[in-house]
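Extended Data, panel c. Modelled sequence:
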Amino acid sequence: QVQLAESGGGLVQAGGSLRLSCAASGSIFSINAMGWYRQAPGKQRDLVATFTSLGTTNYADSVKGRFTISRDTAKNTVYLQMNSLKPEDTAVYYCYMRISQYGFGFNDYWGQGTQVTVSS
């Protein structure tokens, strides 16, 4: 069984910073993609930032230059550094990983979500 544990959300004023972390645990053979999505009330879940299977990064246009995704592959952990936060960044943030447990195929796993609230 694989579990993703997120931490780092909270309440911050506009212009502030937060750092999210997500660590995968359990039986893990390899991880070929990982990243962050977010979902605001009444809206769909949207991509924020990801590492692709090639190791490249993708960012939503709305966060480019403000958010930075990073990872520690030895710890099966992905981070999201969020700077210059805006009220429109308020959402539940979910981490995502595509994991192979035994070396045969990959499955998608999601964290439980962490609330980020940015006050104006």
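The chain has a mean pLDDT of 96. This feature is highlighted in the accompanying rendering.
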